[in-house]
Amino acid sequence: MGYTFTWDDIEQICRKLGMKRQGKTSVWKGIGPDGIKRTCIIHAKHKGNVGSGLIQKITTKELKFASVEEMYYFLKRK
Fold first, then answer.
1. Using CA atoms, how far apart are residues 69 and 27, in angstroms rounded to an integer?
2. Sheet with 20-21, edge to edge strand ranges
3. For 30-52, what is each residue's pLDDT tens digit?
4. What share of the chain is helix, strand, coil (3-state, %, to 5)?
5. What pTM, to 2 d.p., does this model score?
6. 73 CB-side CA count, 13 A
7. Could you tell me how far CA 28 lies from the centroid of its own chain?
8. CA Rg value for the chain
9. Hey, is 18 helix, strand or coil?
10. What was the pLDDT predicted at 50?
């Protein structure tokens, strides 16, 4: 199943992970409830869905989720 995310979704995930925007930049940093340090770059002015390749990179390398599916369910929880 294909999962789609917007930049607003990515920002919402960052907030749930306890990350904070660094000044007026596009960089979000923080340490999540699991103790893992994360850094993510969010291009909030872009509209529409984020491409699947970029979502894969954000999921595994920046937000440290095991899979896109896990990140999707994290977003939909609570």
1. 24
2. 20-21, 27-31, 37-41
3. 998 889 999 999 987 888 899 99
4. 40, 20, 45
5. 0.90
6. 6
7. 9
8. 12
9. coil
10. 92
